[in-house]
Amino acid sequence: MSRTALDYGDAWFEPDEFDEVRRRLPIAYVNAVPVRVGPDGQLEKVGLLLRSMDDGSLGRELVSGRIRYHETVRSALLRHVENDLGPMALPQVPVSPQPFTVAEYFPTRGATALHDPRQHAIALCYILPVGGECTPRQDALSLDWLSPAEAMSDGIREEMRHGQDRVLAQALAHLGELP
Amino acid sequence: MSRTALDYGDAWFEPDEFDEVRRRLPIAYVNAVPVRVGPDGQLEKVGLLLRSMDDGSLGRELVSGRIRYHETVRSALLRHVENDLGPMALPQVPVSPQPFTVAEYFPTRGATALHDPRQHAIALCYILPVGGECTPRQDALSLDWLSPAEAMSDGIREEMRHGQDRVLAQALAHLGELP
Amino acid sequence: MSRTALDYGDAWFEPDEFDEVRRRLPIAYVNAVPVRVGPDGQLEKVGLLLRSMDDGSLGRELVSGRIRYHETVRSALLRHVENDLGPMALPQVPVSPQPFTVAEYFPTRGATALHDPRQHAIALCYILPVGGECTPRQDALSLDWLSPAEAMSDGIREEMRHGQDRVLAQALAHLGELP
Amino acid sequence: MSRTALDYGDAWFEPDEFDEVRRRLPIAYVNAVPVRVGPDGQLEKVGLLLRSMDDGSLGRELVSGRIRYHETVRSALLRHVENDLGPMALPQVPVSPQPFTVAEYFPTRGATALHDPRQHAIALCYILPVGGECTPRQDALSLDWLSPAEAMSDGIREEMRHGQDRVLAQALAHLGELP
Question: Is B70 in contact with A108 (Cβ distance < 8 A)?
């Protein structure tokens, strides 16, 4: 959740201006849970980004980012996957627009399980099988592939930011693979 | 799709300012398809609003409206249902946040099947069984209850605005009741 | 999962004959998770049946049962809800046939997380808001309404049979209410 | 819908015996809609099998078949895809067990839109992107790739058997591509 239109040269908003707008309007996001699946479609691993956060700490996140003006959900997914996982990830973009859930991040801590201090984000959440090689870019330090049991361990859940361990649990449940 | 934050006394934006913002940022919406169901959950009728449009013509629409800053999807649904169908509609708000589809309305005519000249709207779409009495308010002239076959007739489809006859067809398909 | 066609006077199969058939053919089931929701559709409680099992022990189960020959999914849901929760439960049968998941119960213990020693059951799983009074019948001792956190506590999960605590976790995740 | 366990050497039932059982018990099926998608996940074509039917006529069908005893839904999908589309189809088996709909085929003509004279079939319906080469086998004459508009033309809809043009319309609606 650490990027905005501004990170990608979007000329529409000055940073100050965007900070202002997103304190008054919910911002449309996509969240994607990268997964490795076997030849029969069975889940093997989920991918989590390890990132250095704005406050200098380390934290784990899903692939995530804003939907731009006049951009389709599908294009936004592809753009953020390429930004986070590199150009060789070979993602299978979902064929249906139906997300497995909608995640609502509120700026007020404690109001809800999902939290983003910068904004009220409404994220369409998708499972994203990737078949290629992932080379995290930008401020991501690594992409770690974990088994469902590892991903749901207390240690990893605590490292996840914004309450995204809940979105991850929902993704695993949707896949029938919540331990 | 004819209302904005401004219609409901939202103090956050001046009209000019909101018009400006929504030409640069996708706006999060909910779309709801009101339905009457029998005691066994079987679809009986779908409800379509007849509205006088901004250009003076008549047109049909789904229940629809913006999600406000710091408002949950569920609250936005309830608010727009009450605005469009009145306080006695007794809607069954969906228990799951998973929409049956996401409708993407673009401002450029012809770019996509769904069109909204004022903005790029990303609408979470839900089925909304209503059990009470509906008394359309505001600029809606009536709420007409139609059978699936009537709703999918050429005449009605042509009266629907923004390409919403497609969202309606998707809703009926999701219910297993597309004729 | 403790009832068959035979429990309800279905004349098609003798008990021995049905026991024989269901060791050779997967049996179509419905699973329903009864829930209490607030006026805004927010989950409040989930209902779990406490039942004396075939082996004399006590265990917890979801509402569950077979789909009969020439019976719709919707009718099967209604029939099993009435059998398990009584005639005054006032369930909201789902308007869409899309289940939140499909649960596969195998007769071989350990083969999968879900287990039914009598059969291979393929269960369509639905959330079922109930608004009326529930009076468990038949071999159910009680229907207990639990908060999501209570339902996911270790104690309750261990009391659930057939691995249905996993189906329950999937239901809560689908509702965005998995603790 | 023209194959049974018997077609594949399943030793559990004699043909007569299976014909008998499936007049008394609903049979669990999978239906799959093969699709070609672009690199961005956008639907390009849907695949329909052209088959010579039992009555000697030609008709179109989806990929379809029974789930066997002790077979997972995912394995059944893979088996029927390979049977119908050949071993080089390279299907992307769905990662989630949630079907886009459940299709209920009844043996009584006119009772419902979906009809199968041999049985009451309950089919879990999935979208199936295929990336490889399809070589229809068995009694299929060809697999034809059609645009959504072609697939929904009156001519093609009339050629589809068992009412499966409705399942196809539901699939296209789920993909946001119903014309």
Answer: yes
Q: Please judge whether B104 and A69 are an interchain contact, meaning their C-beta atoms are less than 8 angstroms apart.
A: no
d(CA B165, CA B173): 12
Closest Cα partner for D23 from A46, C69, C35? C69
How would you label D60-73 residue by residue, b for 16+ Cβ within 10 Å and e otherwise? bbbbbbbbbbebbb
D-contacting residues in C 113-152 (Cβ below 8 Å): 120, 122, 124
ipTM value:
0.91
- The single residue listed with the structure tokens 């870019």 is A137
CB-based contact A139:A51 (threshold 8 Å): yes
Count of beta carbons in the 10 Å neighbourhood of residue A70: 14
- For residue D102, list chain C residues with Cβ-Cβ distance below 8 A: 73, 97-99, 124
| pLDDT for the residue numbered A57 | 87
pTM score: 0.93
Residue B84 and residue C6: Cα distance in Å, rounded? Answer: 49
D53 to chain A nearest CA, in Å? 30
Question: How many A×B Cβ pairs under 8 Å?
Answer: 80
In a 3-state reduction of DSSP, which class is residue D176? Answer: coil
Question: Facing residues of C30 across strands?
Answer: C65, C124
**What's the number of CA atoms in the CB half-sphere (13 Å) around residue C88?**
5
The label of the residue with tokens 């369930």 reads C91
- Cβ of residue A108 closer than 8 Å to a chain D Cβ: no
Pairing assessment for the beta strands D27-37 and C58-61 based on DSSP bridges:
unpaired
The CA-atom distances, in angstroms, between D13 and each of A66, D19, D60, D73 are 55, 9, 28, 20
> Which segment of B8-17, C151-160, D24-33 scores lowest on mean pLDDT?
B8-17
User: Could you tell me if D102 and D124 are in contact, meaning their C-beta atoms sit under 8 angstroms apart?
Assistant: yes
- At C113, give phi and psi (nearest 5°): -70, -25
Task: Specify the 3-state DSSP secondary structure of D67.
Answer: coil
Please report which confidence band the pLDDT of residue B57 belongs to, taking 50, 70 and 90 as the band edges.
Answer: confident
Q: Note whether D37 contacts A95, CB cutoff 8 Å.
A: yes
